[in-house]
Amino acid sequence: MGRRLLRGLLRPPGRQTNQALFVALLFAFGTGVATIAIGSPDGAWVAAGHGICGMAVVLLIPWKSRVVRAGLRRARLSRWLSLLLAVLALVTLLAGLGYATGLVRSIAGLAGLWVHIAVALMLVPLVAWHVWARRVRPRRADLSRRALLRAGGLAAGAAGIYAASQAAVSLLGWPGATRRFTGSYETGSFRPDAMPSTSWLLDAVPAVDPDRWRLAVTDGRGRRELMLAQLAAYGTQVRVTLDCTSGWYSRQDWTGVPLGALLHRDPGAQSVYVHSLTGYWVRFPIRDLDLLLLATQVGGAPLSADHGFPARLVAPGRRGYWWVKWVDRIELQATPSWWQPPFPTG
Q: Does domain 186-333 sit in CATH 1.10.760.10?
């Protein structure tokens, strides 16, 4: 009896394998999206959760391969879509593992992290189709003691393998051991010229005439415009890490004017709206006002054009897409800070 129970635990039926894989992929996608958003160590558990979900998928591969072999015996045209789904899932898994260990940082000239993300996004419609085309009705046995034991064993096994893999990467001295909690690799710290330049959705670098450029500010005293020379008169310096979702981070000394000193508070304001010459914008909660800096220099020198000249935002504890470049407008608004897309679209 005990042997049959152990065999049943180690060999889950096809429907439960599919259910477990779907849940693992769903959580992997959710934690992956959340990992892009985290910027402070308090959210490091999200990145760890993403890795554990990936290991759960790895553990399910042997059992899913049995389901796939059985499915290939049926002459269905849709099996080619199922095979494509399997191939893409393996690609995103291998790209993620390669980037996490640091052994494969780029694929075909593209950052391995972006390959991982791009292929994962391609999986979304295929997984949705697969769930609809192969939908199964819930059964009472899906919540049986045996099923719950399998789920618990899978979660514990995935967490154990993830912890072991992290320890192995450190022990072997692979590049992945130096990653930040977000998964990013250090690049060009305290060397602004060596710091990569990336923009959200490939925004082009605008040509800015510093003599004609003006910063429009709207706060509790109304609207006014400031010249670059007025901003450059401030010399507040902060040492902050810019952590880009492209998979790199860089620690620099930024100099500029704190937004708390630049803006006069408005009792009705709920958010700080920051706009770029390119049309890109983000909105911060009003409580962040004293944390934000409008930088005009990095490393003791004026910003370069591709790093946001004449002024860019420095947002400690937030990922790079919050660091608006080529800022031309800042406003205190009554609009709540959550009234914006989860990730900027402009």
A: no
